[in-house]
Write a structure and sequence with these properties.
The structure holds 2 protein chains of 2 kinds. Chain A has a single domain (36-326), classed as ABC transporter involved in vitamin B12 uptake, BtuC (Orthogonal Bundle), CATH 1.10.3470. Chain A is 74% helix and 2% strand. Chain A has helices spanning 3-30, 37-62, 70-83, 104-128, 132-151, 161-168, 176-194, 196-206, 208-213, 218-244, 255-265, 277-296, 301-326, and strands at 156-157, 170-171, 174-175, 246-247. Chain A is globular. Chain A starts with a helix and ends with a helix. By secondary structure, chain B is of the alpha/beta class. Chain B folds into 2 domains: 2-127 and 264-291, Response regulator (Rossmann fold); 129-261, Rossmann fold. In chain B, 46% of the residues lie in helices and 21% in strands. Chain B has helices at residues 2-20, 35-50, 66-78, 95-103, 129-144, 160-175, 192-206, 218-230, 245-252, 264-279, and strands spanning 23-29, 55-61, 83-86, 107-111, 122-126, 148-154, 180-187, 210-215, 237-241, 258-261, 287-289, 293-295. In chain B, helix 2 packs across helix 10 and helix 5 runs parallel beside helix 6 (160-175). Chain B is elongated and about 60 Å long. The chains are: A mainly alpha, B alpha/beta. The A-B interface holds A 31, 33, 36, 38-39, 42, 46, 49, 92, 144, 148, 152-155, 157-158, 168, 240, 243-246, 248-251, 253, 291-292, 295-296, 298, 301-302 and B 31-35, 38, 41, 154, 157, 184-187, 191-193, 196-198, 200-202, 204-205, 207, 219, 222-223, 226, 229-231, 244-246, 249.
Chain lengths: 327, 305
């Protein structure tokens, strides 16, 4: 192995991190406020909701599946959790007779409902054998309908202080959503790298037949994967409603696409079996820096969309070349 | 004389027929997810409830998809509706829709978003979007004493409401308050979280230079207020449009400086009323304006229900 190949390997392995570093360096030259602590915390807080979704989506994509229902699940969990977390003095409560409930109630509602939607996804994929794209396309539509039905199309607003803390609070100067994002990333990383369940996910994505032959219960693991992804979408719904002090049935539209983009930019391959949690985190951060950077530079709203799309595709093209070389 | 009698009789027959069976109205709404449009549907349903024998409403959701809306209108035509109410996804694509509806002798009523071209048998009920933008900037100009920097949170960039309200802001700024500078315009997609994110970035970029934020709707304005709270900034004036219940609460707390009341229920109810009258052959103007009103802490009480 010569030096040139070493460099190539280095870029292949750490290319996506370099993209982030280069973007940060360029931005810090272009905008004097970019590197301020305030702004950096903003960036991470802005991506934390998409980031949490992308953690679950990473597991799904590694297993060679896809989850299109995340945004709808987020909305359903947000309105349902919010309806159990409204402040006592708010006149237009969804359940006027309900007393102010401790924050654990909306938390459990969000996690429970998210997990339930994920279970439906998982069962559809595992038991009926229809492609994940179709199964989750179905829930993507129906679950948004459920969110509208449950809330009667109205925002569920004015939440208790402890609920709002989940989205607006700080612990030692760090925003709570940021802490949640990194904590969940760590947990998911452990799940993926240091548990049997994690190994099974890679095995199923790499070669489903081989996995089955070697004794992996594919069906049960698939259900678990989608349940985990649904639960994280629920957490995201909790975070977003807490941040905005409202749960709205129209929330999170197209968030699944942002999460898939973050995961894909982070090097998770849609052909299955390849992908990392740290990649998803970096992918989410790249999207965040991009959004924030374009705003700080005052790029016109029309151009922002064009540039974003181009960068997403470019990042993936670079990454695919890397994977192609590996094979 | 005979002729007059005959036409009188025909009119009588027509009107008794109209009274006998309720007027069937198909309604295609641009997007059920939109909070404002939900309140508008409330207005339509309230009218139907108050006049139970006069009208029968059928609602469909176009999900911001022009093609879907066209299909829904075609279905209504096949179902032989007496009138079709459309909150268009895209006003520039309404001409073929209008033509198809009128060809079958059905009345077309557009609500909230004005298609502009209204042949005989087609009507519009709504508010003049540009007025909302003017009201915002008039209020702000006075509040700032004609000097200061402002940023504008626009709605979806292909929506008439976003473009016209922003144009109203700019028109008054240019003609009346040249001392006010517009620092930036960005889209918050009508959404609270997007309004929040854009404002966070603006606060870092402009710092103390930013004196006001004009938002095309209340949800984005409430997002901006959230960002200001995080930064403990109380010196930035924020204005919205719509006067949603959340926004009115915010005005009463002194956070949102003012909002513009767009009468959602009035537009919805007005739309159904125009449809019913047109079907019954009563004379209705082509364009029916429901006025915008500025809501400030002083006149808040009359808007709170």
């Amino acid at each position: 192995m010569n030096g040139k190949e070493n460099i190539k390997q280095f870029f292949g392995k750490y290319g996506i991190y370099l993209v982030l570093v280069v973007m940060v360096i360029i931005m810090s030259f272009l905008s004097p406020v970019f590197l301020s602590q305030d702004n950096l915390l903003n960036v991470v807080r802005q991506v934390s909701v998409i980031g949490v979704i992308s953690l679950g989506v990473t597991l799904v994509i590694i297993s060679k599946g896809i989850d299109l229902s995340s945004g709808s699940t987020l909305a359903l969990c947000a309105v349902m959790a919010a309806s159990f977390g409204q402040a006592g003095d708010w006149a237009a409560k969804m359940y006027p007779s309900l007393p102010e409930l401790p924050v654990i109630v909306p938390i459990l509602v969000a996690l429970g409902v998210g997990t339930l939607v994920g279970m439906v996804n998982g069962l559809l994929v595992a038991k009926t054998g229809i492609p994940a794209f179709i199964a989750t396309l179905g829930t993507y539509v129906s679950v948004r309908g459920l969110a509208l039905l449950y809330s009667d199309g109205r925002p569920v607003s004015t939440l208790t202080a402890s609920y709002q803390f989940i989205g607006q609070g700080y612990v030692f100067g760090v925003p709570v959503p940021v802490i949640l994002f990194f904590m969940l990333a760590l947990i998911t990383w452990v799940v993926l790298n240091h548990t049997k369940f994690g190994k099974n996910i890679y095995a199923i994505g790499g070669n489903i037949v081989a996995a089955e032959v070697s004794g992996v219960n594919v069906g049960r693991n698939l259900v678990k994967i989608y349940m985990y992804a649904g639960m994280l979408a629920g957490v995201a719904g909790l975070m977003l409603s807490a941040r905005l002090n409202t749960g709205q049935p129209g929330m999170g539209v197209a968030y699944e696409l942002d999460a898939i983009a973050a995961t894909t930019i982070g090097g998770t391959s849609h052909s299955g079996g390849i992908g990392t949690i740290q990649g998803a985190v970096v992918g989410a951060l790249i999207l965040g820096v991009l959004n924030n950077g374009l705003n700080l530079l005052g790029v016109s709203a029309y151009w922002q969309q064009i540039i974003k799309g181009a960068i997403i595709v470019t990042a993936v093209v670079i990454d695919m070349r890397k994977n192609a070389k590996k094979k | 004389m005979k002729k007059i009698l005959l036409s009188g009789a025909a009119l009588l027959v027509a009107s008794t027929m109209a009274f006998a069976a309720p007027v069937k109205v198909g309604v295609s709404i641009a997007n059920f997810d939109d909070t404002f449009l939900t309140y508008m549907m409330d207005g339509m349903k309230a009218y139907a409830k108050a006049n139970p024998d006069a009208v029968e409403l059928t609602f469909t959701d176009a999900k911001e998809d022009m093609a879907k809306q066209l299909d829904q209108v075609e279905n209504f035509i096949v179902q032989k509706m007496d009138a079709i109410i459309v909150v268009p996804v895209d006003t520039s694509a309404t001409a073929p829709m209008t033509k198809n509806i009128l060809a079958k002798n059905i009345k077309a009523v557009y609500v909230n978003r004005n298609p502009g071209n209204l042949p005989d048998g087609a009507y519009y009920v709504g508010s003049e979007e540009i007025v909302a933008g003017r009201l915002q900037m008039e209020f702000l100009g006075e509040k700032l004493g004609g000097k200061g920097n402002v940023a504008i949170l626009m709605g979806k960039l292909d929506n008439e409401g976003a473009l016209k309200r922003t144009a109203g802001n700019e028109e008054v700024q240019k003609n009346k308050y040249p001392g006010i500078k517009i620092l930036d315009k960005q889209t918050g997609q009508w959404q609270r979280n997007e309004g929040l994110a854009k404002t966070e970035d603006w606060l870092n970029r402009f710092g103390k230079d930013l004196k006001a934020i004009l938002a095309n709707n209340d949800d984005m304005a409430l997002g901006a207020i959230q960002a200001l709270k995080d930064k403990k900034r109380t010196d930035v004036i924020v204005l919205g449009v719509d006067a949603t219940p959340d926004a009115l609460t915010s005005v009463s707390k002194g956070e949102l400086a003012a909002t513009v009341f767009q009468d959602a229920a009035g537009q919805g109810g007005g739309g159904v009323e125009v449809a019913v009258k047109a079907v019954k052959g009563e004379k209705v103007p082509k364009e029916n304006w429901i006025p915008f009103k500025l809501v400030t802490p002083e006149n808040l009480a009359q808007f709170k229900k």
